[in-house]
Amino acid sequence: MSAPIEDFSAVLRAARAGEAWAFACLYDRLQPPMVRYLRWREPSLADDLASETWLAVAERLATFDGEETAFRGWVFTIARRRLADHRRQAARRRTSPAPQTKFAAIAAIAADTDPADLVGSRLSAQAAIERLTELLPGDQAEVVVLRVVGGLPVEEVARILGKRPGHVRVLQHRALRRLATRADDLFLLEA
Amino acid sequence: MASDDLDAVMRRLSVDDATADRLLAGALDPEDAPPGYAGVASLVRSAQGPAVAGEMGGRDEMVSAMAAAAGVGAGWPTGAAPKGTRMLGRFVTLRALPIAIPAMALTATAAAAATGSLPGPAQSAVHGALAHVGVSVPSGNDSSNGKAKGPDATGPAKFGLCTAFKAHEANGVHPSSHAVAFANLQSAATAAGKSVDAYCAGVTPGNGSPDDNSTGSSSSTAPEGQGGNGNGHHSTPAGPPTSTPGSHHSTTSVPDDK
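The joint structure predicted for all components is written out below.
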């Protein structure tokens, strides 16, 4: 995970003033984790959702005040809300069975992955996220992804998900235990 | 497995909060991970790997669009825009339109839009916004039998193309010769017997005709020692921001961007 921005408050002030260098700084830090999160949730539209999220962030930047960790949480909150908006609209429009984009993406990853690459250190970030989450229930998986990919602490994850921090801790412990008990199935590293 | 055995396994695999935090933060080497967690630690590190090219596509254009959007927003009181004012793909508000359009037309957003190189939603938003003032940029949905035609550099798009050209040059990036829009601009300049710089001198929005009244540029400038095309290494800005919003909401406020 990238190191914190050296002087986040100065970057934030500059971004509010419309300075492109400041947005470049924020984008470079947060675009990779955000697009990984969105690709995990909605592979076919992740890039568009990320663009919409960034525009919303820029447009609403004056309403935000806080440290870098809170900013990360704020950005992920917006991304998650965009995703929810998209899914609601898609559900209203849908007249035929939903495209299996998620499964297609996973299948594509599997098809392109050499068995040797299943060793964690050689796995792409997106494939690693899929491996981490494929055996987890939805709420546990999202906690793991927000913590691992989003780089967010328990408190921020709790705020994003609308849960109590204690509940998030319970979910992450269950997720970790489940992953550990299935280690031999999931990770060739353990062999 | 008997339930007693399962309980024993679950106890053995339990980790405390601090270890879980370190594990999920990627701060644990697989070799140092608790028994059973080496694979998890390894996958966590892979999931946090450095950015790859496919994740950063359209970066410069997106950054320009964000700077423009913030510039529009910076002139407004904090808080959500009044209901009923949202349009243009959430890019500007109706209330802000008189301010937004001239500002947008002078920024790198319009520059990128003129070449059709903004990400999809942003391109569509800028297309819609600039259309209201007679500036033509690609919509982002344009296609002509799969063959790019690009904007007409002798028409209303001239201003946008020239702004784009200048923005690229100002950032130390030579305008891409493979962009159809810039090729059109170069062709128009050549047909007029001028360099692109001369062809673009004094151009204004609307009819593309020169005007001695300089409009200046609202393009962002990087602090000393920083470029607009940073690669992720950032130092503290050299100077203070030119403006700051009047007030801010709490860190827990989430924009109501409906």
